[in-house]
Design brief:
Largest sheet: none
Number of domains: 1
Mean pLDDT: 90
Shape: globular
Oligomer: single chain
Helix content: over 70%
Order of helices and strands: HHHHHHHH
Low-confidence stretches: none
Length: 192
């Protein structure tokens, strides 16, 4: 049951984008079309899960063992950069159209603070190996959920009659705020 609660907490209640405001750049930048948002969400989820695995292993079998916890940030950033490079090469090879559609946002997964936040939160909360993997999956699913919902709303807004001062970034930020408020409604359900 605790594993399920970690997943629900990471994906919905404590959504990295809508509760912690981590990963806002790709959330706002790639959420124009549902297809590209979903693809970026999957790529980010993959990187989050792999980062969760390797950061836990590095933290427990190297950093704690040799009493060098001050190297967490550096080692986690190296893991994230390596995983993003792997994802970027895979997407470029398997789907050049998707690679062009994601553009600069694919390599920018490296600087997505949600991924670094995942590694640091897992250490801070002292999760075990399985809990860390579930936390990574939940955080990735939550990121994907948030970006796809935003993309769906933005696609619908393209056909809406929006007042000129609110068009573009204005309405996007208002929608993001309403989404954050909507997800805050889950905060009383689980506290983790």
């Amino acid at each position: 049951m605790e594993i399920f609660m970690i997943f629900i907490s990471a994906s919905i209640v404590n959504n990295f984008v809508l509760a912690y405001f981590l990963g806002i750049c790709p959330f706002l930048g790639v959420s124009n079309k549902v297809d590209s948002a979903f693809s970026l969400g999957l790529a980010t989820t993959f990187v989050m899960v792999i980062t969760a695995v390797f950061s836990w292993l590095i933290n427990h079998y190297i950093l704690i063992l040799f009493n060098v916890p001050f190297l967490e940030y550096v080692s986690f950033i190296i893991v994230i950069a390596s995983m993003v490079q792997l994802v970027e090469m895979f997407v470029k090879k398997t789907s050049p159209v998707l690679y062009r559609a994601l553009g600069i946002f694919l390599p920018l997964i490296t600087t997505n603070c949600a991924i670094l936040g995942l590694a640091l939160f897992a250490v801070l909360r002292d999760y075990g190996f399985i809990e860390t993997i579930v936390f990574g999956i939940g955080a990735g699913v939550g990121f994907t959920l948030a970006i796809v919902i935003m993309a769906g709303i933005r696609e619908e807004l393209e056909m809406a009659d929006i007042p000129l001062p609110l068009q573009g970034a204005g309405i996007t930020l208002i929608v993001a705020g309403f989404l954050a408020l909507a997800f805050m409604g889950f905060a009383g359900l689980i506290s983790a």
